[in-house]
Amino acid sequence: WLDGYTPTPNLRGKTQIKEFASFPTLEQLPLWGFDGSSTQQAEGHSSDCVLKPVAVFPDGARANGVLVMCEVMMPDGKTPHASNKRATILDDAGAWFGFEQEYFFYKDGRPLGFPTSGYPAPQGPYYTGVGF
């Protein structure tokens, strides 16, 4: 989940051990609490926050493990927390988002198109290019 730090939230995580007969569905995953005062999402005197599962994926690093993506909710488990910008995204019909996938091609241990000795000039034609 994303914490409440500004201007840039940090990615947070918790680990829970559960056994399922098969890959779990969202309905099988419980709500889970955390101390929001440690993540800039609550005051110390009333620090309960809730993690609501919204997506589940196979964990490539752990055999039979899953990664559960969560939203932060208020203690009632239904009201989105103020830091939870994702929960209201469908309310904005004009909202768009995209992914940027970075990858590199290598030849002889160097990025494709790099000089055989040294490095290319700072920035330049290779920025967002394909190495030529």
UniProtKB/TrEMBL annotation:
GO biological process, one term: glutamine biosynthetic process
GO CC terms in record: cytoplasm
InterPro entries assigned to the protein according to its UniProt record, in alphabetical order: Gln_synt_N, Gln_synt_N_sf, Gln_synth/guanido_kin_cat_dom, Gln_synth_N_conserv_site, Glutamine_Synthetase
GO molecular function, one term: glutamine synthetase activity
Cofactor: Mg(2+)
Gene3D superfamilies documented for this protein: Glutamine synthetase, N-terminal domain (3.10.20.70), Glutamine synthetase/guanido kinase, catalytic domain (3.30.590.10)
Occurrences of domain GS beta-grasp (ranges): 1-77
A Pfam family the protein falls into: Gln-synt_N
Database matches in PROSITE patterns: GLNA_1, GS_BETA_GRASP
Family statement drawn from the similarity comment of this UniProt entry: Belongs to the glutamine synthetase family.
Function text: Catalyzes the ATP-dependent biosynthesis of glutamine from glutamate and ammonia.
Name of the featured protein: Glutamine synthetase II
Organism in which the protein naturally occurs: Bradyrhizobium sp. TUTMP2.9
Encoding gene (name): glnII
